[in-house]
Every structure is written in C-alpha cells, then in structure tokens.
Amino acid sequence: MHQQKRQPELVEGNLPVFVFPTELIFYADDQSTHKQVLTLYNPYEFALKFKVLCTTPNKYVVADAAGAVKPQCCVDIVIRHRDVQSCHYGVKDKFRLQVSEQSQRKALGRKEVVALLLPSAKEQQKEEDEKRIKEHLTESLFFEQSFQPENRAVSSGPSFLTVFLGVVCIAALMLPTLGDAGSLVPLYLHLSVNQKLVAAYILGLITVAILRT
Known about the structure:
Elements: E1 18-20, E2 23-27, E3 35-42, E4 48-54, E5 60-62, E6 66-69, E7 73-81, E8 92-101, E9 109-118, H1 121-155, H2 160-174, H3 193-212
Parallel strand pairs: 2-9
Antiparallel strand pairs: 1-3, 3-7, 4-6, 4-8, 5-7, 8-9
Helix pairs in contact: 2-3
C-alpha cells in the first residue's frame, strides 16, 4: 500500500510572512499618501488566512482587515489614515499581520509594519539631505585626520634626489676652474666659470627647497 504524504506540521509563530512595504509613511501635506497599500504574498503551496491588527485602530481604516490568500498568490490591503493631525507627527504606530492555515486557528507567523505620519515630504527630503551632508563632512574630516600625519611624515625632510643633486653641485664648485695651473686634478674635470655659476644657482635652489620642507 502506498502511504499518503503528510504535510509537515508547522510550528506556531515560525512561518515567515512576506509583506511589502515594511514601512508606511504618510505625509500631512500630500493627500495622495493618506492611502497606502500593503501587499501580502503567499509563496507556499497551501492557502493562508490573514488578519490585520493595529496598535491605534482609531487612527486608521483598514479595508479587508481579514481574509484569505490562495497558494502562490498575493493580496492587497488598503490602509487609510483618517486622523491627520500635527499632534501625531513623528509618532510610530504598528500594524501586525498574522497568518494561519484555513483549517486552524493558531497563528503560524506574524509580521509587523511601522506606520509614520510626517508633516511634509519636502521637509523630510530636506532633513535627509542635511543628514547626508553631515555624514559626508564627518567622513571627510575623518579621512583628513587619518591621513594627514602620514602625509606629513612623507613630506618631512628632503628627498634622496635633492640631497644627491646638492652633493654634486658642491663637488662641482670644489673642482678647479679651467686655466688653473699646477692642479693635480685631471684636465677633463676642470670646469668653466659658467658651469660653476650654474652649479651655484642649482645649489641655491636646492637650499631653498630644503629649508621649506
């Protein structure tokens, strides 16, 4: 005899619930945002019952607060804000969606969605822009503080090439000038007056560069 496959027993409260969006934002100055839509998805192979609960039900109207979702389907839940007042600005309310099998009462899973009323979309955008600018300035300041000591360490002191050129110029000035008699230095190492003037000029530039570092 073939044994019929049984669906594994689901543990209460452990079933993942898929809802979009996970946050509802209402703007007082924009009536088009006073109505929001929550979409509940059922990716499972069995039907689900759902129920929508709210921490402040007097502030909202929920169309179809309870119903069913067919397997691998979705359902839209319309939520309207009916108490748009300044005293509610910034107050976070919560909606809880509970799902269960149609043949059972116990809740297999639940999901909370935050609802928030703000005075203006423009003000919210302005605050987000200001926050983004502050974060950018903080990152820039951190970058400067982190890398400035290294830059100072790298730039402190003359480079090897500068020191080498300085030594060459000093050696050139110490060599005999063309026409000096009785010098033990080979003739090809005798420099002209113009060559020594160039060496002295370069040595002066190197000295200024070293003093500035």
